[in-house]
Specification:
With 124 residues, the protein is an all-beta fold. The chain is globular. It is built from no helices and 11 strands.
Amino acid sequence: QVQLVESGGGLVQAGGSLRLSCAASGRAFSTYAMGWFRQAPGKERELVAAVSWDATNTHYADSVKGRFTISRDNAKKAVYLQMGNLKPEDTAVYYCAATDHMDYEGLGYEYDNWGQGTQVTVSS
């Protein structure tokens, strides 16, 4: 098990940037694939970005490609989401998640460790 705490959310104008951080505690953080999800009001939770356990592979939702960057620092037990050119439709609660279920690229599926979430609001 790994415990996750997100930070860095807030209110930003359209076109602006934010950097979300996720601090992990527990053992063997470097063996987990990590992801950032978001859930907007009335919508299902969706995967925004994912990074493999060793940071060699990443995956992005089409809606954020070219605007968001996921990264991780295994020594600091942290994962980050740099968000740029934010749009009102990016408004959501953002969740950090971890899993030890991984595909052949080391990217995760069936995430089973979740943070509490951090609110991101983008004004037009």
